[in-house]
Amino acid sequence: MNVDTKVIMGDLVLRTPLLTGSGTFGYGNEYNTLVDYSKLGGIITKSISLEPRNGNPPPRICETRAGGIINSIGLANVGVDAFLNQKVEALPIGKTEVFISVVGDSVEDYTSVVEKLETIEDIAGYELNISCPNVKSGGLSLGGDKEAVAAITKAVRSMTHRFVSVKLTPHYAVIAPVAEAAVKAGADALTLTNTLVGMAIDAECRKSLLGNVTGGYSGPPLKPVSLAKVWQASQVVDIPIWASGGMVNGIDCIEFMLAGASALQLGSVLFADPTAPERILVEMTEYCERHNVERFSNLIGSLEIQ
Amino acid sequence: MTVYSPVISRHCQAGQFVHVRIGDSFNPFLRRPLSIGPCDGDYLRLIFTVKGIGTKILSEKQPGDMIDLIGPLGKPFYLPDEKSCPVLIGGGIGVVPLLTLDDHIKKAVFLLGVQSKTSLTVDESEINQRGISIASDDGSIGFNGNVVQLFEKTLQQWSGTEKQKIIVYACGPMPMMIALKSVCAKFSIKAYLSLEAPMACGVGACQSCVVRKAKAEGYYLVCQDGPVFDAQDVELQP
User: Fold this and answer.
1) Which residues of A are known to be catalytic?
2) pLDDT tens readout for residues A191-217
3) Which CATH number fits domain A7-53+78-197+217-299: 3.90.700.10, 3.40.50.261, 3.60.20.10, 3.20.20.70?
């Protein structure tokens, strides 16, 4: 059986549902010799801000005994001007769809960055990382508030025809109000979710394992949390959901599609296995063959509730 | 551990590293960056001490097992020209990239610091064959003291003109590197340091493995800008 791997979201056609999670795939070309772009529906760059950011003091990454990793990179990036001058040329445009992640501290930051990025030809769209910034108006902290999400989304929506996904934190106790606010403001998709705030300590040394003390917890332990957010959001919104959260194999990805995801972001797994896109695509295809599913897209939201 | 990998062994240069996957289970999650030890034809040596669960699992590999490596990664040591006097200074398991470098350098002075005779990171036969001078913290073998003190003692035997020809190549624990950088700065000796840092991707994508720049704001990536750095370019932190 030839399983159709593509997923369609309005005008956007991804040849596979597999994307790379922002922050794990650099500026899109660092993995050139290791990743097979033909297996990816698209890549999402690390988050680009208006001004360059040096990032947090080291150490910036650690493992936890429960599994998974905590990072405190601190959104280190070259800033949008240097991105345009130095990084755009190496984007894998033509090999796969390219989405640029955008981050800021204010609505104006987001719009200023997107305005500059609009000069790049042939990128597919943007992912707005509004999962952990502090907004000038005092709005968005990690608990998040829907007004800030709506304001940023609406402002960016008004200046681009490109695909816009809004990336949210898993820290919302109830995701529906903010998800609905993003949809109402014009988001084309929701990315669920960013990392959880986590922390790790070396008791022997009495030291935090991260220079920034706390960081973003990702990897397999995040999966049940993200899965729940994807499911909950899928019950209240009718735009596509891009799932992100601890997927390491094809069955993980299938579960996210059953819960309502249209696309799947591979993040931390790439650190362990840069060949994951190729492997996971095979595993997903095998699942579909076993279950007589002709198209990946037929899986979306097809969870049966017991 | 000896690994059959013609591509890596025949293309790597001293100072580069491989990013080693521990197993298929994703726990521990991250790869481990290991210096490439001396290569012999299609084979390379990986030498490590068991520090945690990752290296413990690696140490339990059996002959014939497959192992997943990405490499060679990072920038290698700059090789010295014929006029210079290379001094290789290793601390503990940090000796590994220097063994590889030693294979490419004629007549290097080679110093190794260990805690004691029981914690040697190189076989005694190889120590003799390479002419390595040992310093031990407890005095149980070689010089009684740390390897930086041994280096300072060695320096006393060199004239001022000879000192100017010295290029230090070093790899070891951070306190050793900080002390060594200070000694090299005092005598205006060029030093290349091979650094390590907690690392995720190994290819410059994740920006985890940073070391602070000494002459500018911001950070270098150990995986991509290093792991070998000119000592003057980096600010070492305990």
Assistant:
1) 132
2) 999 999 999 999 999 999 999 999 999
3) 3.20.20.70
